[in-house]
Design a protein that fits this description.
Blueprint lengths: L3 H24 L5 E6 L3 H14 L5 E4 L7 H9 L7 E4 L7 H10 L1 H7 L3 E6 L1 H10 L1 H4 L6 E2 L4 H17 L11 H11 L5 H17 L3 H17 L3 H21 L4 H21 L3 H18 L2 H18 L2 H17 L3 H17 L8 H13 L3 H14 L6 H17 L3 H17 L15 H10 L3 H11 L3 H12 L5 E6 L5 H14 L2 E2 L2 E8 L5 H17 L10 H13 L2 E7 L5 H4 L3 H17 L3 E8 L6 H7 L15 E3 L3 E2 H14 L6 H12 L4 E2 L1 H14 L4 H5 L5 H16 L5 H10 L10 E2 H8 L3 H13 L3 E4 L5 E4 L5 H5 L4 H75 L1
Parallel strand pairs: 1-4, 1-5, 2-3, 3-4, 6-10, 6-11, 8-9, 9-10
Antiparallel strand pairs: 7-8, 12-13, 14-16, 15-16
Helix pairs in contact: 1-2, 4-6, 8-10, 10-11, 11-12, 12-13, 13-14, 14-15, 14-16, 15-16, 16-17, 16-18, 17-18, 18-19, 18-20, 19-20, 20-21, 21-38, 22-23, 23-24, 23-25, 24-25, 26-27, 31-32, 33-35
Length: 912
């Protein structure tokens, strides 16, 4: 029993605090004031607010912040700008996920609070928030007098503790400690001189485990759970013992997710506690809870591939679930039995069991989301019964019905099975597309360190787990930036975006340095969680330019809906409409970043200057006239000069009409040796690939070679092969020989060729060979030029080209006609060293063609020389004939003149 005088003192103090709050609201009408109210418990807050409503003569407004709230100032402005209240009380700050960023942004925007909020502002906070206020928003906090405090009564606190303990065990899956913090409870208990009895202490240890688990502090959660379990076991509290065991198993399952290398050990520990969980509920005669437990145990046994034990458990579970379970649990039991049948090669039995699972769900009218696993199992059985077309149909249905974010591993299993089936049916392009999708999913969820020549994906698991654990946005951004493999570059580009004078950034570099990856996996997701001086950032990414206006408008619309939860009523389908929306964004404290990736594509999508002029004028307006818009262009280095047309045809006064200035261009090149080691460490750690330091150092040195730099694309290619071979130690790498790097690159190329199918393998090699020449360069070739050398069906060439372009080994160079080019010079020697009969035959034909061409050229040159000589001789003879003719003519004329003289003389003599 608590001291009655203490209870009276607390009640009196709360009354004085309430009176102070009433006076504050009344006193500061028509002008800004900031008041902070400290209250740790929702029940106490409700009681005090009830009294406040009765006593306050001023009608005030209440606002509860959502957990996803990003900026305090903008949220308050959106709430009050149409009709300012006489006072505003704000709750829920403690529930905001990115609370540190919210408070820091409020501190930066503090002058705007005074300017725009002419009314008393009351912020209702807990001790934890008050502590963060002092760290992140001390300047704003200094405007408020000492906090008004409300303290819970000791008896009420003890009642709350028992109530929460009962709630935690009664509805453990939905339990949330949302109205207090454990630290606050401990402090208040200490101040009251209270201690917990052993049972209540054990209950709060369990609650502490739930809180730690939610924050991804798994080791701490396990420590709390184990201490709580000891009490339950000593006092034979079977039901609570089972609940705690289930939570311990859940914690070990999470450990298995976070540490995949040791997953088997964690699953074994999970199995142990799930078996205790089942025994406890059987002792408590709680078949309903035992029915739930048995399903979780079955899943762990499946992961451990303990098929005999799973068979026995599933039979027992089926009997139990048919009596007191749900249709989903019954279907799951049939699914376990189907998996066991497939492991035993009992294909027909597996088929029937999978169909039974689907039939149960269909009769219960369950949603399609639950059918994915059973369609997969059915398809696996059908494939082995030579029912390929039926299997494909079921797998396509499984893929459509399974949500990636709900079950990543199941989704990947479906993709792998479907890819295998497509390949066996010679549907090579479909199979290859699924392989690329698998790589993207694994990269996105940190299941794979390297991606070959593909693009990195934003680390979805990092974002999800960070948000769940309450990390600040700054911490999440740091993880995203690190995962991109280009942390320094991403940070520098974000710094440019945050610099008011930096309106335009041009990212340029060679093909294969990772321009698209850095944008897609690093820059965009980081910007989505970044604020600049309390301004949210809206990144808009464009990668296609055939209809850039429509794409940009749609991205703006969806981006604003996601960021602010607003649906725009007016269409955004013209450059003018986009510019108008960008100005509206600016007025609403929103910084828009327009990112044009692979911008070289624009010049081929819009081939005449008049069509390009529309985008030029639009970008010039953004750069010159709209302050809260930043432009990023990313393109290959060999296309930089194309930008001079934009510079020449529009006025870019904001950048002094100097588009290729070094202050604007940002070069993305190869990795230095130290940077490559950091990148390698980051990529392997984030995906739990345990590369030894010795292997990392040796690999980087090999990749750098005489160049002293590491090509990003080569790091990815070699890393992919090492990861596939599960090579993580230096000794294992050294067993590949002195030419390990060359062998791994060759194996990667062979793998891509094999993906084209057995019948297309030689064609793919020859196509790649024809994209090189004896000068060790990468000539560009048109489709027609490649077809002329191959003499095969055009459809086969189209297939091969599409696949090797998608693989990233060959570039499709835009233009009319399109041309194809090997992605990088360093691949040329590997391609030209390929040996097989067909390739040698083609090589000989190419050499013969080259020889014939050379002979023809020599013959043509000789004929040309002969013609020139004949022409010269003809001209000389003609000149001689002309001279002779002239001499003869002169001689004839002279003779005629002589004869004429003689004749005249004779005539004269005759006359005489």
């Amino acid at each position: 029993m608590v001291n009655s005088n203490l209870a009276e003192d607390i009640a009196s103090e709360n009354e004085r605090s309430l009176s102070t709050l009433v006076r504050t609201i009344a006193r500061f009408q028509g002008k800004f004031s900031l008041t902070i109210v400290r209250c740790n418990y929702a029940s106490l807050r409700f009681a005090m607010l009830e009294k406040l409503r009765d006593r306050s003569t001023v009608e005030y407004q209440e606002l509860v912040l959502e957990p996803a709230t990003k900026t305090l100032y903008q949220t308050l402005l959106n709430t009050v700008q149409e009709q300012p209240p006489k006072a505003l009380i704000v709750f829920g700050i403690e529930s905001v996920v990115a609370i540190d960023d919210l408070l820091a942004g409020a501190n930066r925007a503090r002058d705007q609070f005074k300017q725009d909020f002419a009314f008393p502002l009351i912020l209702w906070v807990t001790d934890a928030v008050l502590s963060k206020f002092s760290r992140s928003a001390n300047d704003l906090k200094s405007w408020a007098p000492p906090p008004i405090q409300f303290t819970i009564q000791p008896d009420n606190l003890m009642n709350l503790l028992w109530q929460k303990a009962e709630q935690a065990f009664a509805n453990v899956e939905n339990f949330k400690l949302d109205d207090c913090k454990i630290e606050s409870l401990r402090n208040d208990l200490s101040s009251f001189g209270e201690t917990l009895n052993p049972e209540l202490h054990a209950s709060w240890l369990f609650i502490g485990g739930l809180v730690a688990f939610h924050k991804s502090q798994i080791d701490l959660a396990l420590e709390h759970y184990q201490q709580s379990l000891a009490f339950s076991q000593q006092n034979q509290q079977w039901e609570r013992q089972g609940i705690v065991c289930q939570k311990i198993a859940q914690a070990y399952n999470r450990q298995a997710e976070l540490h995949r290398a040791g997953s088997q050990d964690y699953w074994q520990k999970s199995r142990k506690y799930l078996q205790q969980y089942l025994e406890s509920f059987e002792q408590a005669q709680r078949n309903d809870l035992a029915a739930k437990c048995i399903s979780e145990l079955g899943e762990v046994l499946r992961l451990l591939q303990a098929w005999e034990e799973l068979q026995s458990l599933a039979v027992k579970a089926l009997e139990m679930h048919e009596n007191c379970g749900t249709s989903s649990q019954v279907a799951e039991d049939y699914g376990f039995l189907a998996e066991v049948a497939l492991q035993r090669y009992e294909w027909e039995k597996g088929c029937e069991l999978a169909k039974s699972a689907l039939s149960v769900l269909e009769q219960a009218e369950a949603g399609k989301k639950e059918t994915g696993l059973y369609l997969l199992l059915w398809a696996k059985a059908q494939r082995n019964l030579s029912q390929q077309s039926e299997a494909v149909k079921n797998l396509e249905g499984a893929k459509d019905n399974t949500q990636l974010q709900d079950d990543v591993q199941l989704y990947l299993r479906i993709l792998e099975e479907l890819r295998t089936l497509y390949f066996e049916q010679s549907e090579y392009l479909k199979a290859f597309d699924l392989k690329l999708e698998q790589q993207e999913v694994k990269s996105k969820y940190r299941l794979q360190a390297f991606i070959g020549v593909g693009r990195l994906q934003p680390p979805q698991q990092t974002i999800n787990l960070a948000l769940e654990s309450g990390q600040s946005k700054a911490e999440i951004v740091e993880e995203i930036v690190a995962a991109s493999g280009r942390s320094q570059d991403v940070k520098r580009i974000i710094e440019r975006i945050g610099t008011p004078a930096c309106k335009l950034t041009i990212i340029h570099g060679q093909s294969g340095v990772g321009k698209s990856s850095i944008i897609q996996a690093g820059l965009v997701p980081a910007l989505q969680l970044t604020t600049f001086d309390a301004r949210d950032v809206l990144p808009i990414l464009l990668q296609s330019y055939h209809d850039w206006v429509m794409d940009c408008g749609q991205c703006l619309r969806s981006g604003i809906a996601k960021l602010r939860g607003e649906s725009l009523s007016t269409p955004i389908d013209t450059p003018t409409a986009i510019l108008e929306q960008l100005r509206l964004n600016q007025n609403r404290n929103l910084l828009t970043v327009l990112i044009f990736d692979q911008f070289e594509e624009f010049f081929f999508a819009c081939q005449d200057q008049s069509s390009r002029r529309e985008l030029y004028d639009f970008l010039a307006e953004c750069v010159n006239q709209i302050g809260e818009v930043k432009i990023i262009l990313s393109l290959r280095e060999d296309y930089l000069f194309y930008l001079l047309e934009w510079n020449r045809t529009t006025n870019l006064s904001m950048i002094d009409n100097d588009i290729l200035n070094k202050r604007i261009c940002y070069y993305l090149g190869n990795f230095s040796i130290p940077d490559a080691k950091i990148v390698l460490q980051t990529l392997t750690e984030r995906s739990q690939l345990d590369f030894s330091e010795g292997l990392a150092n040796a690999l980087v040195e090999d990749l750098a070679g005489k160049l002293g730099e590491v090509r990003p694309i080569e790091l990815q290619i070699v890393g992919t092969q090492l990861e596939k071979r599960q090579i993580t130690k230096l000794g294992e790498y050294q067993q590949l020989g002195s030419q390990a790097k060359l062998k791994l690159v060759k194996d990667f190329l062979d793998e891509v060729i094999a993906d084209c199918g057995k019948e297309n393998k030689d064609i793919a090699k020859v196509v790649m060979y024809l994209l090189t020449d004896k000068k060790e360069t990468r000539p560009q070739k048109t489709f027609a030029e490649l077809a002329a050398n191959l003499r095969i069906e055009l459809v086969e060439l189209e297939l091969v080209l599409e696949m090797i372009v998608k693989s990233g080994l060959v570039l499709e160079v835009p233009g009319t006609p399109k041309r194809y080019q090997l992605v990088h010079d360093y691949l040329v020697p590997f391609v030209r060293q390929w040996e097989n009969a067909k390739l040698l035959e083609i090589r000989e034909k190419v050499k013969e063609a080259e020889t014939l061409t050379q002979s023809a050229e020599e013959l043509l040159e000789k004929v040309q020389k002969d013609c020139d000589q004949i022409q010269e001789e003809s001209e000389e003879w003609l000149a001689r004939l002309k001279r002779a003719f002239k001499i003869v003519a002169i001689f004839i004329i002279i003779n005629i003149i002589m004869l004429s003289i003689i004749l005249v003389d004779l005539i004269i003599r005759g006359v005489a």
